[in-house]
């Protein structure tokens, strides 16, 4: 079986595109080969700044000959139908076979497709791959029509076996495939021939090209660490930068440089960011001082002076960049020490969203919400509000204008320079976190309060203007914000009622009125309807008009209009929340489901817990779901679930048939069997234990208490017929089942649990 070697040699491929390009080349070529009938043993893709390569081992020499039976028309069909079938198969009538079918005799054709040599198939597949390669960006050059990421210079494509190597006959836009390539642009620019992958890789190395990206990255890491160790320094880990630099060089030559003393006073994050973003330098930290004092640059060439000239040039460029950073830092410090009033005023002219006001408006909302959240997470309200007012001021700083990725980080430095407490300064740094599912979660109370306020304000604001995520579209990263809220609350471990928090930012986003889901309710009720008012309607009933709970003193609005609006909004008013609040809570629940499924909690268990009261307390939901998940993982838990569901099903059927609710009145004196009496005793013990455990949020204890019902429930259903002829006994047993149902409902809605 021959081996296939492909190389597409071009001008420099952007580093960020190389990993995807390797996978695309491997996928497109191998899929094309397989679809054409070839098989292979293994395949590996490689890249350097100037080439994509693919090595395929154990390729079959040709595709197999295939025979396909095709069913045609009936033997008595019109001649036109038969002629069409013959044209489609390329056969003559005498080559057809008549076979019996359910509806009579039918013509069958055996179509033979001879196999094709691997070279022909490879040429066809590779040309298609090159012409349709999915580069994020591509270009044309010269007078040709071919598009590639950068001008394509040559194509190496050979099939090799024990007899030697042969060039696959292929020409793409005037570029003919061959068996030659080139090494390093400067150190080994001459062309050379190759006879297979091993020969190819070895000759490239001699020509100062490391083919394997991982090898280049490992070489950079090793040499950089050695250079730093020699000075007593440590390289700051940065896997993303390492991967990028490995894609910029073919023959990595790390060089160590020293940062000038005049720049050492800059925050280390500034030094790191400037060197990484502008120069692709690795930062070197002095462990004894904690400062960034050096850097490693990676050259792509070995020079007679061991890189001295390259290093000197890089030093000069770096000094210019850091001079700019030092200028920004000094100016920003003056503003920070003066109280940052100019920055605060400047945010009034920065639009956050055209429907949600300026950044200054947003800061006011976040500050008020942070003060409200602070006691719930153990933070000082004054510090939380102060931190919220300072957290985004660095958006107006020159440093963040130059390095947007330093938002928050610089805010901490400026807050400290302004004389703020550590907790306030840390909150300025942490309030954006967590940014993603693997990002660290703040734990300091003030930081948690401000971070929660920031994310909740984002969610409520975009809910108000109806800019919710749809399908895969989430332009304002609201799913990420929701996950951030969830992780902040769960990490803090604080029981927080979101139903009591969410209305407040909604109210602020809409001018202290109900949100859009309430439409014209505030106006028509004659005053600003605030959320505390909703608690006054808890005792509403059909016999007591809802309008009696609201202010009717408004001569500008007719009673008819008010009655109409109240009727239309009754669900919202009785729920104590507008629909938008309920929708947002549901959205948070959906994100929580995703989060818990990743933690190994079954979706039906999550739904069962969320169906209960208290589902706005995420800590309680997670603790309850985790305990229930653990119980249902046992055989006893699964059997208990079946018993609870059976009790609920029998009860529901009876209630529907009888038109009554069996929710009270079970009396042990009507029990006829020992199993019934045992169930009464078990429930008398379990019910108060479950209530106490749920009240103290001791969910494992609640699971233990309800698990004790398994044996008596199983025995009851084994020995007792619920729907007996005696109506007194039947009603008593149905009311007993109601006690079982209610015992389960204290924990979860077991009807939602599958299995």
* Basic shape: flat
Q: In what range is the share of β-strand residues?
A: 5-15%
List low-pLDDT spans.
512-557
The count of β-strands is: 18
CATH topology of the largest domain: Hypothetical protein af1432
CATH class of the largest domain: Mainly Alpha
SS element count, helices: 29
Q: Please give the alpha-carbon distance between the first and last residues.
A: 52 Å
Structural commentary:
This protein has 755 residues and is an alpha+beta fold. It has 6 domains: 150 residues, no CATH class; 48 residues, no CATH class; 125 residues, no CATH class; 166 residues, Hypothetical protein af1432 (Orthogonal Bundle), CATH 1.10.3210; 62 residues, no CATH class; 119 residues, Isoleucyl-tRNA Synthetase, Domain 1, CATH 1.10.730. It is built from 29 helices and 18 strands. Strands 1, 2, 3, 7, 8, 9 and 10 form a 7-stranded mixed beta sheet that branches. The chain has a 4-stranded antiparallel beta sheet with strand order 13-15-16-14, sandwiched between helices. Strands 4-6-5 form a 3-stranded antiparallel beta sheet, covered by helices on one side. A hairpin with a 2-residue loop joins strand 9 and strand 10. About 6% of the residues have low confidence.
């Amino acid at each position: 079986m021959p081996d296939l070697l492909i190389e597409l040699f071009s001008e420099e491929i952007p580093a960020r595109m190389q990993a995807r390009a390797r996978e695309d080349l491997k996928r497109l070529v191998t899929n094309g080969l397989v679809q054409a009938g070839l098989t292979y043993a293994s395949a590996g893709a490689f890249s350097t700044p100037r080439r994509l390569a693919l090595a395929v081992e154990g390729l079959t020499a040709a595709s197999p000959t295939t025979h396909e039976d095709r069913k045609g028309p009936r033997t008595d069909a019109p001649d036109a139908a038969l002629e069409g079938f013959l044209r489609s198969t390329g056969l003559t009538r005498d080559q057809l076979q008549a076979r019996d079918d359910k509806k009579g005799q039918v013509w069958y054709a055996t179509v033979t497709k001879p196999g094709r040599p691997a070279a022909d198939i490879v040429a066809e597949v590779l040309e298609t791959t090159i012409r349709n390669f999915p580069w994020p960006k591509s270009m044309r050059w010269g007078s040709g029509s071919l598009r590639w990421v950068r001008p394509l210079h040559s194509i190496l494509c050979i099939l090799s076996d024990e007899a030697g190597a042969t060039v696959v006959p292929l020409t793409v836009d005037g570029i003919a495939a061959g068996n030659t390539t080139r090494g390093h642009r400067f150190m080994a620019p001459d062309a050379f021939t190759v006879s297979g992958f091993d020969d190819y890789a070895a000759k490239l190395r001699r020509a100062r090209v490391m083919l394997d990206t991982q090898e280049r990255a490992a070489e950079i890491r090793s040499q950089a660490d050695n250079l730093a160790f020699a000075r007593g320094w440590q390289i700051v880990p940065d896997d993303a930068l390492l991967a990028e630099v490995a894609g910029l060089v073919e023959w990595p030559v790390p060089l160590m440089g020293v940062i000038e003393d005049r720049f050492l006073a800059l925050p280390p994050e500034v030094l790191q960011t400037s060197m990484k973003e502008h120069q692709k330098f690795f930062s070197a930290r002095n462990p004894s001082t904690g400062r960034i004092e050096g850097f490693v640059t990676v050259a792509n060439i070995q020079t007679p002076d061991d890189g001295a000239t390259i290093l000197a040039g890089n030093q000069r460029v770096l000094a210019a960049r850091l001079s700019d950073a030092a200028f920004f830092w000094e100016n920003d410090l003056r503003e920070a020490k003066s109280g940052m009033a100019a920055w605060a005023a400047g945010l009034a002219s920065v639009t956050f969203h055209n429907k949600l006001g300026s950044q200054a408006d947003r800061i006011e909302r976040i500050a008020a919400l942070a003060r409200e959240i602070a006691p719930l997470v153990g933070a000082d309200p004054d510090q939380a509000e102060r931190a919220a007012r300072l957290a985004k001021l660095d958006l107006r700083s020159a440093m963040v204008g130059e390095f947007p990725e330093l938002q928050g980080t610089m805010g901490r430095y400026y807050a400290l320079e302004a004389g703020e407490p550590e907790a306030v300064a840390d909150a300025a740094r942490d309030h954006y976190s967590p940014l993603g599912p693997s990002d660290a979660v703040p734990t300091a109370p003030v930081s948690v309060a401000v971070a929660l306020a920031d994310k909740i304000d984002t969610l409520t604001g975009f809910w108000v203007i109806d800019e919710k995520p749809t399908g895969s579209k989430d332009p304002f990263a609201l799913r990420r914000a929701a996950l951030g809220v969830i992780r902040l609350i769960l990490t803090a471990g604080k029981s927080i009622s979101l139903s009591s928090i969410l209305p407040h930012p909604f109210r602020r986003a809409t001018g202290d009125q109900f949100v859009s889901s309430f439409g014209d309710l505030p106006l028509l009720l004659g005053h600003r309807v605030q959320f505390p008012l909703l608690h006054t309607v808890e005792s509403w009933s059909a016999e007591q008009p809802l309008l009696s709970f609201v202010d009717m003193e408004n001569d500008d609005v007719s009673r008819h209009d008010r009655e109409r609006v109240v009727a239309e909004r009754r669900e919202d008013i009785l729920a104590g929340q507008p629909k938008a609040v309920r929708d947002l809570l549901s959205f948070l629940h959906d994100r929580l489901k995703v989060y818990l499924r990743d933690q190994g909690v079954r979706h039906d268990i999550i739904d069962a817990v969320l169906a209960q009261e208290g589902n706005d307390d995420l800590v309680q939901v997670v603790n309850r779901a985790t305990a229930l998940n653990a119980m249902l993982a046992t055989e006893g838990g699964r059997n208990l679930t079946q018993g609870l569901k059976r009790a609920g099903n029998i009860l529901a059927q009876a209630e529907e048939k009888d038109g009554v609710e069996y929710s009270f009145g079970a009396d042990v004196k009507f029990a006829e069997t020992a199993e019934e009496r045992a169930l009464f005793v078990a429930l008398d013990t379990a019910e108060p234990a479950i209530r106490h455990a749920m009240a103290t949020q001791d969910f494992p204890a609640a699971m233990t208490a309800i698990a004790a019902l398994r044996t008596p429930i199983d025995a009851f259903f084994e020995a007792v017929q619920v729907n007996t002829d005696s109506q007194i006994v039947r009603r008593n047993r149905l009311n007993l089942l109601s006690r079982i149902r209610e015992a389960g409902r204290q924990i979860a809605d077991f009807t939602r649990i599958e299995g």
